[in-house]
């Protein structure tokens, strides 16, 4: 019988994880001997640029095979079964003073020849929509192409959960217009990008039947399970749901109607790190297994929570990625970790330190009060207000009603309850400081719907990649 490509990937994972220590030693020796004559610099600036070599790109391709293999083991060879509707957003490239091209890591993948070659066969989004510089036009077109090819879609996703939710919310506001385009076989005048228009002209033809079906589904009062209804052949939803993306899990579960949410990989622009060997595992329990051939990994300090350091073939030497990980076990001889939080992302008004996960836990407790009232907390962030003494925490909340697209006013008494619940769920030091009046009472400000989308657009306009966007846990101004 012919061996499937992902079976080769699975075999390689066993081999790599069994000989993890030897492979790490060899990799480090190779990196150090190659760079023995180098004076190493440090990066301290705002914009983080990491070097990419042909070798790094090759590792990226291998990493992809390895993280896809366990997923394929469960869901079959997706490349053969149909298409992926993944929301992808490229950023314009820039040129460095020395004449090198700099791009976000996802953009450089979208430019790779192997990716371009598989795009028309394996994805619903044409390349023009991925490279469209206008976020809203790109979203509109990627949804349009995904809806037109809905019967072929076997996977719905994006790199991080936030971009996928942004797409679902965009669909909630634009499905009527999308359906009328599908009915007429013509793309809306709102799309002015010539690349998107010409890509649409190649595939669109009037399809009133399909438009009616989609309209019926979108017209229902509740959008529970909408992903499954619109893309009935999809067998899983693929996006990173761990770390700062945890807050989106409940909402994604609501829209995906029981489809498994798969966080397949753990990687950063600095290094490809780990893969999820158990893709069906609940997002809260996901562990990633380190791949010893991707980079040399060190874990500081000794304990059960570690900060990750990488030494890479591209020249990073003991570089702090800024992630905190918790050890959960081993696969063969390779360590497995859960993602805990970003290092140093803490809100603080005095000596106390509230980490990303402290905040997440407290918000989770407080938002449970909204659930019976039919409200969902879609986004949050925090701010340390020290403009008056004592300082206090401000939380910005964006709310949405489970059914319908409007948002009724919430009883202020409930919001006061939420503040108490939040404070009660924060750590010991916070409570002591509250008692001693070192911290003033916490405040929740409910923001207009769409505020967090606007925040995302703001960061994208400043050069962030929408594909890699992570909303800040704490804002500075
Ligand atoms: P970037 O700098 O855009 O490449 O993003 C890399 C960062 O995203 C990592 O350092 C992590 O903080 C976060 N990240 C990547 N993969 C995961 C994951 N599977 N779970 C949680 N956070 C992740």
UniProtKB/TrEMBL annotation:
<dbReference type="InterPro" id="IPR055378">
    <property type="entry name" value="GH3_C"/>
</dbReference>
<dbReference type="Pfam" id="PF23572">
    <property type="entry name" value="GH3_C"/>
</dbReference>
<comment type="similarity">
    <text>Belongs to the IAA-amido conjugating enzyme family.</text>
</comment>
<feature type="domain" description="GH3 C-terminal">
    <location>
        <begin position="358"/>
        <end position="477"/>
    </location>
</feature>
<dbReference type="InterPro" id="IPR004993">
    <property type="entry name" value="GH3"/>
</dbReference>
<keyword id="KW-0436">Ligase</keyword>
<dbReference type="Pfam" id="PF03321">
    <property type="entry name" value="GH3"/>
</dbReference>
<feature type="domain" description="GH3 middle">
    <location>
        <begin position="303"/>
        <end position="342"/>
    </location>
</feature>
<dbReference type="Pfam" id="PF23571">
    <property type="entry name" value="GH3_M"/>
</dbReference>
<dbReference type="GO" id="GO:0005737">
    <property type="term" value="C:cytoplasm"/>
</dbReference>
<dbReference type="InterPro" id="IPR055377">
    <property type="entry name" value="GH3_M"/>
</dbReference>
<protein>
    <submittedName>
        <fullName>Indole-3-acetic acid-amido synthetase GH3.17</fullName>
    </submittedName>
</protein>
<dbReference type="GO" id="GO:0016881">
    <property type="term" value="F:acid-amino acid ligase activity"/>
</dbReference>
């Amino acid at each position: 019988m012919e061996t499937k490509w992902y079976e080769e990937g699975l075999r390689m994972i066993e081999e790599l994880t069994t000989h993890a220590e030897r492979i790490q030693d060899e990799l480090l020796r190779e990196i150090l001997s190659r760079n023995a004559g180098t004076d190493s610099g440090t990066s301290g600036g705002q914009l983080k640029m990491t070097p990419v070599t042909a070798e790094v790109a090759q590792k990226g391709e291998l990493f992809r095979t390895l993280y896809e293999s366990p997923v394929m083991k469960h869901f079959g060879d997706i490349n053969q079964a149909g298409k992926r509707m993944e929301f992808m957003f490229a950023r314009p490239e820039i040129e460095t003073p020395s004449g090198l091209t700099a791009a976000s890591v996802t953009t450089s993948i979208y430019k790779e020849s192997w990716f371009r070659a598989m795009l028309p066969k394996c994805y619903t989004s044409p390349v023009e929509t991925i490279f469209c510089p206008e976020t809203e036009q790109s979203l509109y077109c990627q949804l349009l192409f995904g809806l037109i090819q809905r019967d072929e879609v076997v996977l719905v996703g994006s790199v991080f959960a936030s971009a996928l939710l942004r797409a679902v919310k965009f669909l909630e506001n634009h499905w009527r217009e999308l359906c009328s385009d599908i009915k007429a076989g013509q793309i809306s005048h709102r799309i002015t990008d010539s690349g998107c228009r010409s890509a649409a002209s190649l595939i669109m033809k009037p399809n009133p039947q399909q438009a009616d079906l989609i309209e019926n589904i979108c017209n229902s009062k509740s959008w529970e399970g909408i992903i499954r209804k619109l893309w009935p052949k999809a067998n899983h939803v693929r996006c990173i749901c761990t770390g700062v993306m945890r807050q989106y899990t409940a909402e994604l579960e609501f829209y995906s109607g029981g489809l498994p949410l798969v966080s397949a990989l753990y990687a950063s622009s600095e290094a490809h790190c780990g893969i999820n060997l158990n893709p069906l595992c609940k997002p809260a329990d996901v562990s990633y297994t380190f791949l010893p051939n991707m980079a040399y990994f060190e874990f500081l300090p000794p304990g059960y929570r570690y900060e990750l350091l990488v030494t890479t073939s591209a020249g990073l030497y003991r570089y702090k990625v800024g992630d905190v990980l918790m050890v959960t076990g081993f696969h063969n001889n390779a360590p497995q970790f859960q993602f805990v939080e970003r290092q140093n992302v803490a809100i603080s008004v005095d000596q106390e330190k509230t980490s990303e996960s402290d905040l997440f836990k407290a918000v989770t407790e407080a938002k449970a009060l909204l659930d019976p009232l039919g409200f969902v907390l879609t986004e949050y962030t925090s701010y340390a207000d020290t403009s008056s003494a004592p300082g206090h925490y401000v939380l910005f909340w964006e709310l949405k009603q489970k059914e319908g697209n409007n948002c009724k006013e919430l009883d202020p008494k409930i919001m006061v309850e939420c503040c108490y619940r939040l404070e009660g769920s924060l750590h010991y030091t916070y409570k002591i400081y509250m008692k001693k009046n070192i911290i003033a009472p916490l405040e929740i400000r409910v923001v207009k719907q769409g505020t967090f989308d606007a925040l995302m657009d703001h960061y994208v306009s400043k050069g962030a990649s929408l594909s890699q966007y992570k909303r800040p846990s704490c804002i500075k101004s």
